[in-house]
Specification:
- With 140 residues, the protein is α+β, with helices and mostly antiparallel strands.
- 39% of the residues lie in helices and 20% in strands.
- It contains seven helices and four strands, in the order E-H-H-E-H-H-E-H-H-E-H.
- The chain has a four-stranded antiparallel β-sheet.
- Helix 3 crosses helix 4.
- The two termini are 18 Å apart.
- The structure holds cytidine-5'-diphosphate and magnesium ion.
- Cytidine-5'-diphosphate (CDP) binds next to loops.
Amino acid sequence: MAIERTLSIIKPDATKRNLTGKINAKFEDAGLRIVAQKRIQLTPAQAGKFYEVHAERPFYGELCEFMASGPVVVQVLEGEGAIAKNREVMGATNPADAAPGTVRAEFAESVGENSVHGSDAPETAAVEIAYFFSGLELVG
Ligand code: CDP
Ligand code: MG
């Protein structure tokens, strides 16, 4: 499997509860390397642009508001098959369905406030990484 990079976001419900380190430990324990990372606060418009693929979904407004409700940690994770591996470490979108030991099983509060985002394919990973980071900020 190829070395990939994926965009990860530690969401406001998790930064608020001081879980950044515990979540990063799960990524690193799984062999993912954090090659870029910054803590920022999104505006609702910036969150809306990031999630525009979901613009027609009923939860879109709430999702944008939530993502702008507190600091997020945006990061680039690198490793063998990083996109799928990160999705595995994250667990299912709804924490009620997330496998034991995953970030969402342990930390997520609800299907909306579910602690982490991770890219779902190589194309979306490239677009999402470029949304937050310049090439100079990625140090493998
Ligand atoms: O984040 P993931 O890729 O697992 O799920 P998604 O289907 O791409 O949805 C993006 C985000 O929208 C989720 O992580 C949730 O925060 C939110 N969402 C929600 O609030 N209610 C749903 N029924 C589905 C998703
Ligand atoms: Mg998704």
